[in-house]
Amino acid sequence: MSRFPPQTTSTSVTTFSNTTNYAIGDQQPTTVNDDAGKTFTEHDLKRMREFGQLFNRDSSINRALLEELFRKEPSEYTQTIYRYASRIFHCLKADLTDNPILNVLANENKEQQPKKKILDVPKIDYANEKEKRRTLKLAFSVLRYQKVVEDLLDETQFFATFPDLRDEYSLVCTVLYDYLSRKFQVRDNPPDVNEPNNDVLITQTENSILQLKTHLAAALARNRIKAQALSIEELLPESLREVQQHGAELPVYSWVNLLKTDIKTILQIFENEEQMTRVYSINDVQRKTFMVDFHCPNLLIFHYSQKQRISNHRLVKNGLLYLQDKSSCIAATTVAKLLTKKDNILVAYVSGGLLIQLLISLTNELESKIYAFGARTDENMRDLQDKMKQFGVEKRMDILECVKIFKERFIDVNLDEVNLENIKVILCNPPCSRSALIQPLDFLYNEGEDVSLLKNFSQPVEDKAYIKECMQRETAYMRQAVKYSSAKAVVYVTYSKYVKENDDVVNVTISEQADIRQQKKDGNNYKIALPLIPIQISMGEHTKIIRHEKFLQFEASQKMNGIFVAVLVRDYEKRRIKKKQVHGSDSENNDEKEKRGTKHHGFQLETEARAKLRKATASQKSAQAAAMATTTTRTPSNRRAKSNVTATRDQIQTTSTPLEKPQPPPPPQQPKIPTLSEQLASIGKITSIETMNETKEQQQTKDATAKDSKL
User: Fold this and answer.
1) Torsion angles phi and psi, residue 290, rounded to 5
2) How is 106-146 classified by DSSP, letter by letter?
3) Looking at the Swiss-Prot or TrEMBL record, what is one Pfam family this protein matches (predicted)?
4) Which of 86, 128, 223, 580 has most Cβ atoms within 10 angstroms of its Cβ?
5) Under DSSP, is residue 325 helix (H, G, I), strand (E, B) or coil?
6) For residues 584 and 188, what is the distance between their CA atoms, to the nearest angstrom?
7) Distance CA 150, CA 157 (A)
């Protein structure tokens, strides 16, 4: 008989055992019969036991079950954020071609005009950075779940029930996504925000969704069952889900502001004050550890769970640390490695200014100036200048002397007419497809990119027309960069994974330069060189970053966003260096030769005269040696061999020694006097003949003695 928890109702429960015979080992089901004659199985008893413990105040699991059952999903959005996010969604949402009913409703009050894929997002004045981050997060989420939200509105006939909201389609989609992600619970303002809910239109939208929440929840459940999705995240296409999963585990990267501090001080703070341990492999980075990046020496890497902690750290708030992905740091480090003292930089696209700040930090000791293009408006220029002042540029020199920003686009400017001083390197970073990013929201927030970037990451299908447009723009930027004659190198950077935007753009630029060189017969063309950052694989990493032995590319992964880097250097500079080296070595050799010739001139002529005499003597000795070879089979003596070697060496020296001055006339011939070597040779000849005769006599004596012994 089973034991039951204390009864929570007045209904009595009676148990009995079934009289059916079971084999040994079979599980006998327990049944329960109440006063009304109902029979309960073991499954029913288990359910009753759970509910009995749920409503029993003395139960140990009562609190956990109640919290799970009645847990309220927190909301981090206010009505103001709803309004801002709906504006962004309205400008970036996809065309509703798959839903003709909603398409008619959306275009009901619009005049016929040429369609524009992306509308210009109006500038939004956020109250603080936290409100901006939350707005971008909500807008990006609605863009990704646009298809899911549209299906719910279509199946429940939401606009037929509430026709007053037809003109507020973007607002309805924005609010509906927040409610379905929180299980249609009533929204409360975040605890850190004190804002009254006095927006009449948004309040009406929320009340309408709550009135229809049963139908909306049922439609969502049907769609999940149809797609076999355990959560609403699984309703997304696979490509969007992968990006979301990888982005959630991306480490936190932050670089050190070398204008205000140094890397050793920052390391001591995290090791001593924060009690964190330094590791030397990115695979070993955990919650209480950090590491210094292998490729960028001023870049720190933290675990993704420490994102909020690092973002709110005093070092970040005081401008000593800046959060930025490693991909952007790779581009800046590559440029810094190409610079020397007082070499200046030209940046093709200023973006949000964070890349400019990193370049200033890396080139602080070099005293480099930076010229940047693409600020677009006066307001953006003022924002960028304010960022530079907060960064600490005024401590080094005047802001106008250190960084100069232009509103014009890089490809619209004649660089020869602009006052650019000593430009050594051009950082060509045109706006690209950003297809290699796995965390676009943080990239958008940190880099200050255009909000229209979010649209590309909310579409599951590759937009070939947009990629072609990016490729054409990138090619135009590269043509403009290589056209500037004063630059010595061009660093081409993209955040794209497509070969069309990476390799093809570089190869087209190189081929065009070759054609121009042939036409103008000018050797000032560019060639591809390897980036000057460490390319070895660090401990624990197994990523190939060099492609085709000339390009640097980090593929998108759970460790970092993807980036492509190509370095182009002028070919004439290489040849000039080689020419200088060759001329320098020749001049050194000539100086040494002149010194040696001046110092030993008389000795050299005297040696050559004696060498000629030795040569004539050597020819005579060679004839004598040939005659000797016919009369004897023994080798000459050591003295004879030494004489031959000496003659040969003198002959080699005579043929190899150059004459720097005209050869003097040969001396007049005198009666031949036997030299010492000839006398020694004759003595050796006699000695060798006598020795040979003595040896023959000794051999004959030995043979005769041997015959006598045999007899």
Assistant:
1) -155, 170
2) HTTTPPP----SSPPPPP---SSHHHHHHHHHHHHHHHHTH
3) NSUN5_fdxn-like
4) 86
5) coil
6) 79
7) 10
Tokens linked to 393 = 């540029």
Contacts of the segment 661-669: beta carbons below 8 A, 24+ positions apart: 661/601, 661/605, 663/608, 664/605, 664/609, 666/609, 666/612, 667/609
CB neighbour burial string for 46-77, b if at least 16 within 10 angstroms, e if fewer = eebeeebbeeeeebeeeeeeeeeeeeeeebbb
Query: What span, in angstroms and rounded, lies between the C-alpha atoms of 297 and 317?
Result: 22
Average pLDDT taken over every residue of the chain: 75
What is the per-residue burial (b if ≥16 Cβ within 10 Å, else e) of 147-156?
bbbbbbbeeb
- The strand ranges marked E within 429-572 are 489-494, 526-529, 546-547, 551-554, 563-570
Assign 611 to helix, strand or coil.
helix
CA pair distance 365, 546, nearest whole angstrom = 29
H or E element that contains 516: helix 503-520
Closest CA to 478 of 456, 508, 515, 438: 508
Inter-CA distances, 291 with 168, 261, 265, 446, 481, Å: 49, 18, 14, 21, 36
**Maximum C-alpha span of the chain:** 156
**Distance between first and last Cα of the chain:** 131
pLDDT tens digits for range 212-235 = 999 999 999 999 999 888 888 888
> Torsions phi, psi of 117, nearest 5?
-60, -45
DSSP 636-687: PPHHHHHHHHHHHHHHHHHHHS--SSPPPPPPPP------HHHHHHHHHHHH
CB-based burial label for 555 (10 Å; 0-12, 13-18, 19+): middle
Backbone angles phi, psi at 254, to 5 degrees: -150, 135
Contact 405, 384 (CB under 8 A): yes
Tokens representing 355?
């890349």
